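Homework help board

Subject: predicted structure for assignment chain

Our instructor gave us this sequence and asked us to write out the predicted structure in token form, then describe one feature. I got the tokens but I'm not sure how to describe them. Can anyone check?
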Amino acid sequence: MSKKEEKPFIASRPLTLIYKLPISKTLPFWEGLKQGKFLTTKCKNCGRMTFPPQADCPSCYSSEVEWVELSKEAELLTATAVMVKPSSFAQEETYIVAVAKLKEGLKAVGWLKGVKPDPAELKEKIKPGMKLKVETAISKEGNPYYVFVPA
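My token output:
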């Protein structure tokens, strides 16, 4: 077989990555979720709020930020049902990921609970502009997180 006719050899194997992210500067966010609070950071220098919370302001680069509580009111911008899941979520049922605009004007991404992720129900019950609320929860592993639910 000449070189032009050779087929490429492809070898593949699973690769597992474990990320260890330092959260010390954003620890109040995670502690707040455990207490049912939905917090973010606001720059003391320029007043910009960011979500997710940032240790340093992305606008003026100041490290002087304060913690503020968000309202937990949101409006759906878009959503999609995740049918083909990443391996780290393989044990999860099919789920819906939503992008929402918080009352304060910030955008957030999170799971949308309270709606079945089947196509018929998605078209019928999930509409851009629908009102959502933020709920906090603790995973079975003990990690705090938030979800959106229809208001």
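Reply (TA_rk): Your tokens look well-formed. For the description, you could write something like this. The chain has two domains: 21-69, 71-151. That's the kind of observation they're looking for.
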